[in-house]
Amino acid sequence: MHTLEVDWDHPTDPRPGPRLDHVRAYVSTAGADGHLWHGVPTLLLTTLDRTTGTTVRIPLIYGEDAGRFLVVASADGAPDHPHWYRNLTAHPEVRLQVGAATFEATAHTATATEREVYWEMMTALWPPFEDDQAAARPREIPLVILERLPGR
Hints:
Layout: H1 18-28, E1 36-37, E2 40-48, E3 55-61, E4 63-65, E5 68-72, H2 83-90, E6 93-98, E7 101-109, H3 112-125, H4 128-136, E8 143-148
C-alpha cells in the first residue's frame, strides 16, 4: 500500500479573524494561550485537503474519553458539513495539537450508538451545539472520534 507524504508542519491556517488569532496564539504558546477558549478545551485539527493536497488547520472544541478525542462537525448550524469534516472523511489520518502535545491520529465518524453516548457529553460541554443541530436540520451534525496512532 502506498503511503501518502503529508506536510503536517506547514498547514494553511484560517482566514484573518478570530479563528486565525486563536490558532496563532495556540501555536506560539504551545497551547498555554488558546487551549482553553471561553472556558472549554480546544485542540488544533490539521487535515489533508481533499481537493488541493495541502494541509489545513482549525481550532475545535473537544471532549475526551479514555484517551479518545471527540469533536463536533457543527459548522455553526450550517446546512452543509464543514470543510474539515469532508477532508477527514476522504483522508482519516490527521494531526492534532492538544495543549503542548502534537501527534498524528485517525478519525472516524461516530456510529449511531457512539453519537448517542457522546452527543450528551459534548452538549454538556458546549450547549450551543444543541442550537446548531436545530438550525442544521435535516442535516445530522456528525460527531467525530479521533484516536492517537500508536507510537506517534
